[in-house]
Design goal:
Strand order of the largest sheet: 2-1-3-6-4-5
Radius of gyration: 27 Å
Largest sheet: 6 strands, mixed
Structural class: alpha/beta
Distance between the termini: 15 Å
Strand content: 5-15%
Number of helices: 7
Helix content: 25-40%
Length: 206
């Protein structure tokens, strides 16, 4: 599979051969869904909490006699039926993370890259670098490429000016190659890879 290499002025400057082992796989939505769920589950803080009866402030004294009052028997005012009482089987602080094998995670990333290529939403840039850190200048150049919602993945070292200039542009994300992930690829409309990123991703995922 061949792709045209463009510069930031939307001019073709060459071609690159994309590996079918990384960019030519069939789209598997089940795999992508598993990977996104795994990523979002790991991100959850899991700090929701309710109090059990042992954590409620209050006396341990029996509220009133067992018999003779005509009311239902009660053993504690901290019981869940009373206002301010305990919550039974409520949420506790915990991790929501679950396991997903490395082989599946690697395949999911290749599937996400392949899906963007199959949809025609993959652009290869010569380099993601600018002479200035001005957001206005970069926004104008991205507009010439027709990018309104995009994830831009560069090599392992990002250009400082490019990274700073892109920070304030809505719906534009910039990541180094080692930060490439399924969730960020799918949440943006277009995937933009630099020549370095393509080479490094293919070396890592083949």
């Amino acid at each position: 599979m061949k792709a045209t290499i463009k510069n930031l002025n939307n001019e073709a400057v060459g071609e690159i051969e994309l590996s079918d082992a990384v960019f030519g796989l069939p789209t598997r939505t089940d795999l992508l869904a598993r990977m996104v769920n795994w990523q979002l589950a790991k991100r959850r803080s899991g700090n929701h909490k309710t109090k059990g009866i042992s954590e409620i402030s209050g006396t341990t004294k029996k509220p009133y006699s067992q018999k003779g009052t005509g009311r239902a028997r009660q053993g504690s005012i901290r019981s869940p039926q009373f206002r301010g009482g305990a919550t039974i089987f409520g949420p506790v602080v915990r991790s929501h993370a679950h396991d997903l094998t490395k082989k599946v995670r690697k395949l999911a990333l290749k599937t996400a890259l392949s899906a963007k290529a199959a949809e025609g939403k993959l652009i290869v840039l010569e380099a993601a670098a600018t002479e200035t850190h001005k957001t206005k200048d970069l926004a104008a150049r991205l507009a010439t490429l027709g990018l309104t919602s995009a994830l831009i993945i560069d090599g392992s070292n990002l250009d400082d000016n490019f990274a700073k200039a892109s920070r304030n542009i809505p719906l534009i994300d910039v990541l180094p190659e080692q930060g490439a992930n399924v969730y960020d690829i799918l949440r943006r409309d277009t995937l933009v890879l630099t020549r370095n990123a393509v080479e490094q991703l293919e070396a890592r995922l083949k």
